[in-house]
Amino acid sequence: MHIAAFARPGNCCSLLWLGAWLSLAAPAVAETEAAVSSETASAEVGKLLERQLDTASSRLARLYELHEGRPLWQDPARVTALVEALRALKADGLVPGDYRPDRLEVMAQAALGDAASVHAKADMDMLASRTLLTALTHLQRGKVDPRRLDANNNLEVAPADLDLAAISQSLDQGDVEAVFDQARPSYKPYEQLRQGLARYRRLEEQGGWSALEPAQDTLRPGDSGESVAQLRQRLAAIGNSGVVAADASYYPAIELQAPDPRAYDEALVDAVKGFQRRHLLAEDGVVGPRTLEALNISVQQRIDQIRANMERARWWLHGLPESFVLVDIAGYDLRYFRPNGETWRTRTVVGQPGRRTPTLRSEITHLTINPTWTIPPTIMREDVLPEVRQDLDYLQRQNLTVLSPGGETLEPEDVDWSNPGGVMLRQPAGSSNPLGQLVVRFPNDQMIYLHDTPSRWQFGRSARALSSGCIRVEGVMELAQLLFEDTDTRAEASRLVASGQTRNVLLARHVPVVLHYWTVQPAPAGELTFRPDIYERDPALIAALEKPPTR
């Protein structure tokens, strides 16, 4: 029946029924129209996105493909969660402003309004997705390319490996935070650095600490005065902030209310030694120039130092094998993570600032027993030739043989030392050979290797950036034997050395080796060990982290 029929005179009941029916039916109709309108809008946005994806990266296109071409960011709550996650990247040492969360928030408010055009919705959706992938890439593998910072860096950072299917699924579930958790490095050292950054930022909010200006050059146990009281306050500021771990033996807590705050007592001596231990300083309990310099590094500088090393962690912590040799350059430390789960650790001497040990990854292929030493080009040019030109007898005193480029022995008098060309100098195996009794070799472009040394006293120094680039290893004979055993290489290091014969021993299986550079290292209990930036690499990295990315 036509609705008009209900309007005829006398059909009062019918009119009342019609009004009731319309009042009930109207919301359902409105909801249906809204659903159709939403689906239509989403389809229109999808069409525009499809056109934009023709020129987008393959990764971005794949993300939308996994989402069946539908827009990802038409839900205001989801966009809000993304904005909050971008701002929270400060906790990872990144700069939230790089990802322009404020701009995205404003753009989303306009694009998701009732009057917004389909083009505005599509543009906002694409911007949010691009921003997400950029942020996740920086979070997983780092924002800065290390090769652009230091030509001495041979460590190539692998491309980001984002699980786009998992990202799409998490977004469908509205869990943006899970997306960031999936990309964030899951390694314990990274999480310890992250926690340390939060603690130092809390310390900064509390006012940090003031620089010490002692009345005398050195503060020693038994001293007394206002300078000692300031030292006590400086150490207490760290201890009372929760920056250090609960292990009091590692870094004893200091109470401000000592019997005599101005006295350099035993408790203060222990605290100074703990500070020195955590900063790779001579552990003598005396505040000399180097300890004072470390004490006066500001909390903001320490925050930046942690941020720099979080970026290094994003570069280097991925893809490490279960068993490998790890050289911590700035920490003067070598660890061999053995296949049986044990860790063998020792001290090292690394390259001096003018002859830096590079960062790199390679594989140990063989060991040289009772090595001869052919002087490398840099040492030849900068150290040996000036001595030879002044005194030709230097060669005899150093037991150096002169060789032609083809390996024939030459008489020193027959060489034009002002322009020696391709002449080589070689020292035979023996007790005075700088390589000692054994060399651990791995392919690399800079002729770097691990080796023994006759100057074993150097391992007792707190600062050990003393070599010409190669790494001197304390107890390298023990390391060699472990490598033989763990690779099923039938050899006995001590017996081979005792023979006096120079020979190469190939490992039955290669062992990965990583040389890296940390100026902040989490200790097992979570406390942070700060190291001197011996190669002054931190400032350039921090500046690069602060620099806005290219858009």
Describe the structure.
- The protein has 4 domains: 46-184, no CATH class; 209-297, Muramoyl-pentapeptide Carboxypeptidase, domain 1, CATH 1.10.101; 322-372 and 429-518, L,D-transpeptidase catalytic domain-like; 375-427, no CATH class.
- The two termini are 65 Å apart.
- With 551 residues, it is an alpha+beta fold.
- Mean pLDDT is 87; it is low at 1-36 and 240-253.
- The chain has helices at residues 12-52, 58-66, 76-87, 101-111, 118-141, 146-149, 164-172, 176-183, 188-205, 226-239, 266-278, 289-295, 299-316, 377-390, 394-397, 476-486, 493-498, 538-546; strands spanning 324-328, 333-337, 343-351, 360-369, 373-374, 401-403, 409-410, 424-427, 438-441, 450-451, 465-467, 471-473, 503-516, 520-522, 528-530.
- It is built from 18 helices and 15 strands.
- It has an 8-stranded mixed barrel.
Derived from helix and strand composition plus strand pairing, the structural class reads alpha+beta
User: Which fold name fills CATH's third level, the topology of the largest domain?
Assistant: L,D-transpeptidase catalytic domain-like
Instruction: Quickly count the helices.
Output: 18
> Which architecture of the largest domain per CATH?
Beta Barrel
The CATH superfamily label of the largest domain reads: L,D-transpeptidase catalytic domain-like
What overall geometry do the principal axes of the alpha carbons give? globular
Task: Let me know the average pLDDT.
Answer: 87
Question: What is the rounded Rg?
Answer: 33 Å
List unreliable stretches of 5+ residues: 1-36, 240-253
Summarize the main sheet. Answer: 8 strands, mixed, barrel
- Neighbour order of strands in the largest sheet: 1-2-3-12-10-9-4-13
Q: How many structural units, i.e. domains? A: 4
